[in-house]
Design goal:
The protein is mostly beta strands and 177 residues long. The protein has one domain: Lipocalin (Beta Barrel), CATH 2.40.128. 12% of the residues lie in helices and 53% in strands. The chain contains two helices and eight strands, in the order H-E-E-E-H-E-E-E-E-E. Strands 1-2-3-4-5-6-7-8 form an eight-stranded antiparallel β-barrel. Strand 2 and strand 3 form a beta hairpin. The longest helix is centred in the first third of the chain and has 11 residues. It is elongated, with a radius of gyration of 18 Å. The two termini are 29 Å apart.
């Protein structure tokens, strides 16, 4: 049974169909009236199946660094994203446009899927630039934002002028086969 299962998996899930990364970059920026809060992670993990245009990306919320202070990072982790309960942010779905992954070039694409943060899953379309470098490498750049209320992240009234309602996100990913 095992050899047949192995063969079927290799037939349908060969490495040649997938672009992968475990070191993508993602950053966020909160521009509030009284304070700017930045976080950065280079631990974005992801895979794109070029045959189906499907993708899955995730980042550990405790992998972010670059805060103004350790206390600010602690508040981010414990009070806002609650990383002990919701350790990852995830985005899984499909690229809407048909892409010829064998043709180098730069493409404006829309990624549609389920964005999971803070235990809330919403359907979202994110615009991105996908650059096919060659038959083994690609890169993705995207800038988008989301509101804290979309994901039921509450900001205490005492600090509402220090934490923005809308958070800006930048993603930069290099992927290899």
């Amino acid at each position: 049974m095992f050899p047949i299962l192995t063969y079927v998996c290799l037939l349908f899930f060969s490495d040649g169909d997938y672009y992968k990364t475990s070191h993508g970059e993602v950053s966020f920026l909160s521009r509030a009236t009284l304070e700017k809060i930045k976080g950065h992670s280079n631990e974005l993990r992801g895979v794109i199946n070029q045959r189906t245009n499907s993708f899955s990306f995730a980042v550990a919320l405790d992998s972010f660094y670059g805060f103004n202070s350790e206390l600010q990072k602690q508040h981010y982790s414990e009070n806002y994203v609650e990383s002990d309960y919701f350790p990852d942010a995830k985005f899984t779905g499909k690229i809407i446009e048909e892409i010829d992954f064998n043709k180098p070039g730069t493409y404006a694409v829309r990624a549609k899927g389920n964005f999971d943060l803070h235990g809330i899953v919403i359907n979202k379309i994110i615009h991105a630039t996908l650059t096919i470098i060659n038959d083994k490498q690609l890169k993705i750049e995207s800038d988008f934002s989301f509101s804290l209320t979309e994901f039921s992240i509450k900001v205490p009234r005492l600090v509402h002028r220090k934490v923005a309602e809308n958070i800006e996100i930048h993603v930069g990913i290099r992927m290899n086969k």
